[in-house]
Design brief:
alpha/beta, Uracil-DNA Glycosylase, subunit E, 5-stranded mixed beta sheet, 5 strands
Length: 253
């Protein structure tokens, strides 16, 4: 596999994503290959343009400008599935949900739930660590208007599938938003998880326990921690805390 100037393995096609994900032996390999992915031309162009143009408040910073890998330990029993990196958040800092207001919300909530060692996430080297939890995204590149296309979602799905497969203790998935929910269910079905018909519908507080090859897997829904939801009060801290508390109870109980 060819490598780019920074040493990351380069993947340029959907077929290459499938091969790269399938042969990744551990989470570190998945993360490295994600960082070199160039399989979606629209997303590559956008993330790199943002990294050059920048936001005025960050004009002196060097943007990451690459796909953003997941974060969290391989023994995690809880997974959190987001949509995609923010243009001036994860696309700037190189760490998922880091450096924007959505990250302020989710990491503070994870800290309150005992799943993070600190309530803030401002930079990739700020000392944040997760316990028993791994955060992933349905799409790994910042998309224009926060809206990946279905084709981009499907191209990226092998990374998500492999990442979840490499979490052997996984028992609960917290899905932030309807896009993540619709991206996740086909990935689970392809992994042998029994998805009921009709398919479970997304909603805040939605809960479904599925028959998975490794044992029961519970999927919980939460409104996304986007500013559109948090600024308007559609999602409140107690609402988010309730979902994460339920996840902890299920994972550890």
């Amino acid at each position: 596999m060819a490598r780019d100037a920074d040493g990351y393995p380069v993947t340029r096609t959907p077929a290459g994503v499938v091969r790269g994900a399938r042969t990744a032996v551990d989470l570190a390999a998945v993360d490295e290959r994600v960082c070199g992915c160039r399989a979606c031309p629209r997303l590559v162009a956008w993330r790199e343009e943002v990294a050059v143009v920048k936001r005025a408040a960050f004009r002196d910073q060097v943007y990451w400008g690459r796909p953003v890998p997941g974060m969290g330990p391989a023994d995690a029993r809880i997974g959190v599935v987001g949509l995609a990196p923010a243009a001036h958040g994860g696309n700037r800092t190189g760490r998922i949900f880091t450096g924007d207001r959505s990250g302020d919300w989710i990491f503070a909530a994870l800290w309150r739930a005992g799943l993070a060692n600190q309530p803030t996430s401002v930079a990739a080297d700020d000392g944040l660590e997760l316990t028993d939890c791994r955060i992933v995204a349905a799409v790994r590149c910042a998309p224009p208007d926060n809206a990946p296309t279905p084709a981009e979602r499907d191209t990226c799905s092998p990374w998500l599938a492999r990442e979840l497969a490499l979490l052997p203790r996984l028992r609960v998935l917290v899905v932030l938003g309807g896009f993540g929910w619709s991206a996740l269910l086909p990935v689970l079905a392809a992994a042998g998880v029994v998805i009921p018909r009709p398919r479970p519908k997304f909603g805040h507080g939605a809960e479904v326990t599925l028959d998975a090859p490794g044992g029961p897997l519970t999927v919980l829904g939460s409104y996304h921690v986007s500013q559109q939801n948090t600024f308007t009060g559609r999602l409140t801290e107690p609402m988010l805390d309730a979902v994460l508390t339920r996840a902890v109870d299920l994972a550890r109980g």
